[in-house]
TrEMBL record:
Coiled coil: none annotated. GO terms for molecular function: DNA binding. Keywords: DNA-binding. It comes from the Bacteria. Residues 7-61 form the HTH cro/C1-type domain. It comes from Candidatus Limousia pullorum. The keyword Transferase does not apply. This is Helix-turn-helix transcriptional regulator. SUPFAM superfamilies: lambda repressor-like DNA-binding domains (SSF47413).
Length: 113
Protein backbone atom coordinates (compact mmCIF):
# COMPACT_ATOMS: atom_id res chain seq x y z
CA UNK A 1 0.00 0.00 0.00
CA UNK A 2 1.14 3.53 -0.74
CA UNK A 3 1.07 6.41 1.72
CA UNK A 4 -2.00 7.79 -0.04
CA UNK A 5 -3.83 4.45 0.23
CA UNK A 6 -2.90 4.07 3.90
CA UNK A 7 -4.15 7.55 4.81
CA UNK A 8 -7.46 6.91 3.05
CA UNK A 9 -7.84 3.45 4.61
CA UNK A 10 -7.06 4.67 8.14
CA UNK A 11 -9.49 7.58 7.78
CA UNK A 12 -12.24 5.26 6.54
CA UNK A 13 -11.57 2.78 9.37
CA UNK A 14 -12.42 5.61 11.77
CA UNK A 15 -15.59 6.38 9.81
CA UNK A 16 -14.42 9.94 9.17
CA UNK A 17 -15.17 12.04 6.13
CA UNK A 18 -12.32 13.93 4.49
CA UNK A 19 -13.78 17.07 6.08
CA UNK A 20 -13.73 15.56 9.60
CA UNK A 21 -10.17 14.30 9.15
CA UNK A 22 -9.11 17.70 7.77
CA UNK A 23 -10.50 19.44 10.86
CA UNK A 24 -8.58 17.09 13.16
CA UNK A 25 -5.41 17.77 11.15
CA UNK A 26 -5.93 21.56 10.92
CA UNK A 27 -5.80 21.44 7.12
CA UNK A 28 -8.31 21.90 4.32
CA UNK A 29 -10.41 19.10 2.88
CA UNK A 30 -8.60 19.74 -0.39
CA UNK A 31 -5.26 18.98 1.28
CA UNK A 32 -6.61 15.63 2.50
CA UNK A 33 -7.98 14.90 -0.97
CA UNK A 34 -4.55 15.58 -2.49
CA UNK A 35 -2.84 13.34 0.08
CA UNK A 36 -5.28 10.51 -0.62
CA UNK A 37 -4.95 10.84 -4.40
CA UNK A 38 -1.13 11.05 -4.19
CA UNK A 39 -1.10 14.52 -5.72
CA UNK A 40 0.88 15.78 -2.71
CA UNK A 41 2.51 14.42 0.43
CA UNK A 42 2.01 15.72 3.99
CA UNK A 43 5.04 17.45 5.50
CA UNK A 44 6.89 15.72 8.33
CA UNK A 45 4.94 17.50 11.08
CA UNK A 46 1.66 16.39 9.52
CA UNK A 47 2.96 12.82 9.08
CA UNK A 48 3.78 12.68 12.78
CA UNK A 49 0.34 14.06 13.64
CA UNK A 50 -1.30 11.47 11.34
CA UNK A 51 0.66 8.65 12.97
CA UNK A 52 -0.36 9.82 16.45
CA UNK A 53 -3.98 10.34 15.45
CA UNK A 54 -4.33 6.83 14.04
CA UNK A 55 -1.96 5.07 16.48
CA UNK A 56 0.44 3.86 13.79
CA UNK A 57 4.15 4.44 13.28
CA UNK A 58 5.59 6.78 10.70
CA UNK A 59 7.42 3.72 9.36
CA UNK A 60 4.07 2.07 8.71
CA UNK A 61 2.89 5.15 6.82
CA UNK A 62 6.03 5.61 4.74
CA UNK A 63 7.22 2.09 3.96
CA UNK A 64 5.21 0.48 1.19
CA UNK A 65 6.31 -3.05 2.12
CA UNK A 66 5.30 -2.68 5.78
CA UNK A 67 1.68 -3.75 6.16
CA UNK A 68 1.45 -4.21 9.93
CA UNK A 69 -0.35 -1.61 12.02
CA UNK A 70 1.44 -0.58 15.22
CA UNK A 71 -0.12 -1.75 18.45
CA UNK A 72 0.76 -0.27 21.82
CA UNK A 73 2.64 -2.63 24.13
CA UNK A 74 0.52 -4.17 26.84
CA UNK A 75 3.29 -4.51 29.44
CA UNK A 76 5.09 -1.17 29.35
CA UNK A 77 7.65 -2.12 32.01
CA UNK A 78 9.15 -4.73 29.68
CA UNK A 79 8.87 -2.67 26.51
CA UNK A 80 12.14 -1.55 24.93
CA UNK A 81 12.26 1.25 22.35
CA UNK A 82 13.85 -0.17 19.21
CA UNK A 83 16.74 1.85 17.77
CA UNK A 84 16.51 2.23 13.99
CA UNK A 85 20.26 2.41 13.25
CA UNK A 86 22.03 -0.07 15.53
CA UNK A 87 25.34 0.37 13.65
CA UNK A 88 25.86 3.75 15.34
CA UNK A 89 27.87 3.39 18.52
CA UNK A 90 26.46 6.57 20.12
CA UNK A 91 22.91 5.18 20.20
CA UNK A 92 21.59 2.83 22.84
CA UNK A 93 18.26 1.21 23.60
CA UNK A 94 16.16 2.91 26.26
CA UNK A 95 13.22 1.70 28.26
CA UNK A 96 9.83 3.29 27.85
CA UNK A 97 10.22 4.70 31.38
CA UNK A 98 13.48 6.43 30.41
CA UNK A 99 11.88 7.83 27.25
CA UNK A 100 8.89 9.17 29.20
CA UNK A 101 11.23 10.78 31.74
CA UNK A 102 13.19 12.46 28.95
CA UNK A 103 9.98 13.77 27.37
CA UNK A 104 8.80 15.18 30.71
CA UNK A 105 12.10 17.02 31.18
CA UNK A 106 11.87 18.42 27.65
CA UNK A 107 8.28 19.57 28.27
CA UNK A 108 9.34 21.39 31.43
CA UNK A 109 12.26 23.13 29.75
CA UNK A 110 10.73 23.89 26.33
CA UNK A 111 9.98 27.53 25.59
CA UNK A 112 6.94 26.79 23.42
CA UNK A 113 4.94 24.61 25.82
Amino acid sequence: MTLAEKIAALRKQQGWSQETFAEKMDVTRQAVSKWESAQSVPDIDKLIKISNLFGVTTDYLLKEENNEIFNEPTETDDYIVQVQKPERKDIRQVTLEEAKGFIEIKKKTADWI
